[in-house]
Amino acid sequence: MTQHASGSSFRLFSSDLQRWRWQIFAITWLAYAAFYFTRKAFSVAKLGIGEDPDFSLDKAAMANLDALYLGAYAVGQFVWGVFADRFGTRVVVFGGLLVSALAALLMGTFATLPIFATCMVVQGLAQSTGWSGLCKNIGCFFATRERGRVLGLWSSCYAFGGLVAAPFTGWWAYQAFGDWRMAFVSGAAVVAVVAVLFLWLQRNRPQDVGLPAVEEEHAAVGEHPGFWESLRTILRNRTVLVLGLAYFLLKPARYAILFWGPVMVYERMPELGKVAAALVPSAFEVAGLVGPVLIGLLSDRLFGARRFPACVLSLLALAVVLALFVPAMQSGSVLLVVGLLFLMGLTLYGPDSMISSSAAIDYSKGAAGTASGFVNGCGSTGAILGGLLPGYFDTETVFLCFTVTALVATVLLIPHWNSRPQASAEPAAAGSPRKALA
């Protein structure tokens, strides 16, 4: 009788944990996707600001604002993981969502350069709460042995966010109201709603809802290495340093398209109109939904968990596509531009997601959080150039630079072609569910 009760209790326990895993996966995925509605608002608003006689900003000024945002975002990447560990994901990410919505609302209400500059810094700090905090949240609900597959699926959130945010805010701004300010207001409304849902549905860890941890703690709190010790470990890790440098070189291209894609298309093809110009770069994000999944399968099944061969091949293809993009826009063919943007997203988002998550953790040598933060911080620093360069140079020069940086990143990764991560010897936690997200 006791055994029967114990078995029933275990099944109930497992069922409750599985429900919470699905719930946490869904709400964290939605939260990170939502950040893009305020992140992409300025890139869409640029189309109207450039023609607004009451608020004059040239391309250089817009680029400087992007740089302010990206600089603050890079700083936040290094900082917020510490706060998430200390205060929990719930507080940190909810605060980031709420502040991001308020800053966007302010930008859509008061159009002055000082307010825009201040709000872009605030946005960068607010939106950088998302990655480290939400990855930590996923890690609390999914065991080590299953996180690779789960994070591969979860990483589609940022491609999806970028995909839907630009057309959504563009429609409200130029179709529904005919006012660029509505790009900020509509994005703020979405983020505010998601912030409320996040506060309602999210929990930091299974123990917060009376469930056991998915894995046993491996060391007492006092035995964990400190910040400086972990940082020294990473700085002595040549593989992680190479990943950080490669990510620094790769990230500018992605953010140039995210922040300047609509402007680039509209300048070359004004006959499309503003709404279509905001929609065309969405092909880049559509491919971003597929790229991480494909490169993960290629890495695991064809290359036996070696991360570098898949990244090298993808980056070589990316360099070719980047070189062809400007001639495609000069041809005037919308289909050709959309096709190349799709291929660009396919070959860029794959190595982007693998370098910043799976590879950084695989080669971290016991300092996964610090390695992931370091690599992502390097990438976010490089992203500043993605916001700046299109404002100061013509599109041909910018994409020539991106072609060269993709090739340099490829050369950096080639010597690590046969490198394999050490297989985790960590046993499965007792009582943890056997099935991950299918």
Structural class of the helices, strands and pairings? mainly alpha
**End-to-end span in angstroms?**
34 Å
Q: How many separate helices?
A: 17
CA radius of gyration is 22 Å
Mean pLDDT: 82
Q: Give unreliable regions as ranges.
A: 1-10, 217-224, 423-438
Q: Order of helices and strands, N to C?
A: HHHHHHHHHHHHHHHHH
Counting DSSP E segments of at least 2 residues, the number of strands comes to: 0
Please describe what this structure looks like.
With 438 residues, the protein is mainly alpha-helical. It has 17 helices and no strands. Helix 14 packs antiparallel against helix 15. The radius of gyration is 22 Å and the shape is globular. The N terminus and C terminus are likely disordered.
Short description:
The protein is mainly α.
Question: Can you lay out the helices and strands and say which pair or pack?
Answer:
Blueprint: H1 2-39, H2 41-49, H3 59-87, H4 89-109, H5 113-127, H6 130-141, H7 144-154, H8 156-176, H9 181-201, H10 227-235, H11 238-268, H12 274-279, H13 282-302, H14 308-331, H15 334-362, H16 368-392, H17 395-413
